[in-house]
Amino acid sequence: MAYILFRWVINAVALIVVANVVPGFGVESFYNALIAALILGLVNALVRPLFFILTLPITILTLGLFTFVINAFMIWLVSTIVEGFVVEGFVPALFAALLLWAISLATNWLVKQAKES
């Protein structure tokens, strides 16, 4: 349970970091980032697999790069649901998806290193 809460807070902080880096991508407060991270996690768990299956031929054709487009769409979808979480177009959503992927990769690696030591 503590791990899930830790990942939730890390994802909220990642959203704030991305909001400070990507123009057209914004989060009004840490509370809004927490809500956006929660909804993004739910959308990624429930809606993203359906989109992934429906777009599997395109994903295979692009060697998996279309997954970033799916992730950008999920971020845009969450921005339509959560007040105070703003994405002003597809390009900011795509850059946000790329940065969130990189941050997630780094934090997963750090958590794995911490567990091993």
TrEMBL record:
InterPro entries: Phage_holin_4_2 (IPR007165). It comes from the Bacteria. The lineage of its organism: Bacteria, Candidatus Uhriibacteriota. The chain crosses the membrane at residues 5-23, 29-47, 54-78, 90-111. Signal peptide: none annotated. Keywords: Membrane, Transmembrane, Transmembrane helix. This is Phage holin family protein.
